[in-house]
Amino acid sequence: MTLVLKRHALKLGTRSSPLALVQTELVKAALLKTMPDLIIEVVTFETKGDVERDASIEDIGGRGVFTDELDDAVMDGTVDAAVHSVKDLPMKLRTGTLFAAMLEREDPREAFVSHIHANLAAVPAGGVFGSASVRRTALLKAIRPDAQFALLRGNVGERVASLPERGLDGTILAVAGLKRLGLQGHIREILEPEALMPDPGQAAIGVIARHNDLATRRIFARIDHAPTSLAVTAERALLAGTAAHAVCGCLATITDDIITLRAVAADDTGAIRARGEISGSPTEAAALGTRLAQTLVQKILQERVA
Asked: How many beta carbons lie within 10 A of that of residue 165, not counting itself?
């Protein structure tokens, strides 16, 4: 008698937004490239951030409003892993979970999107930008102190489409999300990090799994992009060290086996409180992020005392 083993599908949790589904397909494709016979089932969820659209992200809970329900499903075994935009994850991962993999990062920069203006400089004084991000609002105020802001929520495509309907001059969106959705034609200007520093983890797709699920972790280890994981580790360490003191943007890059982390700290008025940069071995990514965070916080506290 031939013994037939029943094969179980690997269950991936994701939000049901267009961008989340595209990102999940990228994870599936990466897995199937290394394990062509793997059976993958996608399970979709609505999160608090998807349902409550009438307030800013910070007002409804901050980081985690797009990820908590998925991570609950990972922990209770409803799914084996969850696919996330890393920038949406809270500073501290859910107890019992960890990053099982990160795909190679897309372009992490920010983009100015508008239906009426060729670039950011072309927006007239007092122009109104749509945003739900405290970081984008603060750092854009540093560039354009005259700017006005209106709450703009929804998935990426909805935000792009609603600009003329709302009479908005433009918005700031991640280059990566626009490219993944085929909406890069709406980009009017790409903003370099020196002008508008991205969110920690921006453009990185992360997979969260249970710490004790070694079988699932082994599967995802095949598709982990180590340079992206190390860069994001540095950025998230910096975020954890500065969150109580300032609104921060940062970006880590790895060149010739050296990781360089750059960051800017601002308050919600758009005043830049501190800038910093640190370099070292990629194996010290977390420590470098923590050290730069301490330097920025020290500058901020010294300024307050002065």
From this structure: 8
Q: What is the DSSP string of 94-149?
A: PTTEEEEEEPPP----EEEE-SS-SSGGGSPTT-EEEE--HHHHHHHHHH-TT-EE
Matching residue, tokens 């071995």: 281
Residue 154 in tokens: 């929804």
Domain 225-306 fold is Double Stranded RNA Binding Domain (3.30.160)
Ramachandran area for residue 270 (φ above 0: left; ψ -120 to 50: alpha; else beta): left
Q: Which CA distances in Å does 9 have to 32, 174, 208, 302?
A: 13, 32, 17, 55
> Domain spanning 110-191 has what CATH number?
3.40.190.10
- Rounded to the nearest 5°, which phi and psi values hold at 121? -65, -25
Residue pair 268/297 in contact (Cβ under 8 Å)? The answer is: no
Indicate the pTM of the whole model: 0.91
The architecture CATH gives domain 1-105+205-224: 3-Layer(aba) Sandwich (3.40)
> Which residues are identified as catalytic?
88
Average pLDDT for runs of 10 along the chain of length 306: 52 96 98 96 84 64 78 96 95 94 98 97 97 93 95 93 96 98 98 96 98 97 98 97 93 97 92 96 98 97 76
